[in-house]
């Protein structure tokens, strides 16, 4: 099967679209570039569809690689026949391919291999023929130096039969169907762990059982984490009697009891010793894969929303990393996010230097012409917010609470050390808080996405798959927004289509040596940035106050000549065409259609001419928590509180209500109707009014509702 046919069978996409997409991918094009600038080739596929093609392409290549490995291994044994090779090549199921390979797989010394070495394979074959009624007499003929009795001979034959049953594809597939329908996952607490404090968070799984196919991803991952931490033992099982009947239906062919009694013993051994452990592991792995995919999908959607959160923009910001005993670290940033000043204040216990702290903050706001204040939402956050809001500034200053998850990770990172080699982690962390307010995307790309705090069991899922998915999300967001090539950091530039880490460093070095780039063509002067990288990256990089008016837009340089022709045809200079809705309305798109430029591309060009380089993100707005709520003891059932969604899971969302503990809105409390997707109701950073429906003081848990 060709790769295009393989993918077309799995996705509702035409083969031509798939073939053209694969061609572009193999030429080195990125998903953002293909979806935005090659719409005619792909039939206007979006990033999601192209991403699915990429995953299926990787799956196809994995299967092909495995097939070649297996064919080579069987060939080395001299056991590869034309029919066997044809069968392997025709299969596109890794499970089926592994089943075919199982009899040829090199084995360690097993009961069956020992029995074969003792000359008992012919006896096993006689048993499997199921015609011999004097089987004990027949077994006596196989007594030798290694086999002392008839029973030992029959035991060895049964060991061989058990291995044959284990390798029987029909048996394995029939059992798989039972596992799919009836497998149950069971968790039992390890007695020595039952009373341990750390184990109590898994208390609900101390004696748990449910159908595996009904176990939601978050619960399965929680159970497996409990097992990993040696709190519970986990088993996957199916009804044993049904499993044995299933095997016997395949293996038993006659009613000659002398043989079938032996085979019954062999099949039971095969099931308990070989099949059940292998297929239970297989079923659990499949369930784990689905759970991983669900968790990664939730994490990816949360990350996307966080990266595209509203920026305040280029403002002079005073940022505070709050604290009690160690004080509050204060930094002043200019509109580009550069550090101007840093110092500590101590407005809270135990020092309570409130008056001095007020004077310092007022002085800094005036000296550095501060336009907004960012406060990290960690320890002492609300106290610091109250303190700041009491200060009588000479002008109106907006105060924002900023999610500081991952700021400490950034402050100790190689990137932070390179940016601020002369400052300690506290200064770096405060700078990160301020920059997050100005532009969340530009700052968060410097942090490992797993550390940002918007995932669901992110440390328990397939780490390679998670990294690939999150990298794709970051790249998508960066290219969706577009980047100022003259102000972007190397980490931010590295996510631009076609750039990567090395070219990003080269661009920053080029800026440092030659000054700001004045046109997109200057990119061609950057060392090692060749024609392919320019094609992929140029349209996603913006030049402010450029030489060419389209260099600050999402129009690709390859279409500049086309846009110039449009301007000429409507009798307007190109620089005057941009933003001129009346002149743009006179452009007749059909006059510019060609083999490689169709309506999708032309429509995008017109949108960009109307509003060039518009940031798709909304502007940040001030949010205020209930000033009467400072800790969990201030909360009571029935209260209505303002909150911000700070994490989304499959089972609901968590809401920051201005205290240390976030409240949970269970999925059943999001709406007066059945909800299958939490993201259909709420989004990350969404501002809500929630109702408190339960407060568990002992466990520090708050239940909230959106339903009146």
Automatic annotation (TrEMBL):
Gene3D superfamilies: Nucleic acid-binding proteins, RuvA domain 2-like, Tex N-terminal region-like, Tex RuvX-like domain-like, YqgF/RNase H-like domain. Coiled coil: none annotated. Residues 638-707 form the S1 motif domain. Pfam families: HHH_3, HHH_9, S1, Tex_central_region, Tex_N, Tex_YqgF. InterPro entries: HHH_9, NA-bd_OB-fold, Ribos_protein_bS1-like, RNaseH-like_sf, RuvA_2-like, S1_domain, S1_Tex, Tex-like_central_region. CDD domains: S1_Tex. Signal peptide: none annotated. PANTHER family: 30S RIBOSOMAL PROTEIN S1, S1 RNA-BINDING DOMAIN-CONTAINING PROTEIN 1. This is Tex family protein. It comes from Aquimarina hainanensis. The lineage of its organism: Bacteria, Pseudomonadati, Bacteroidota, Flavobacteriia, Flavobacteriales.
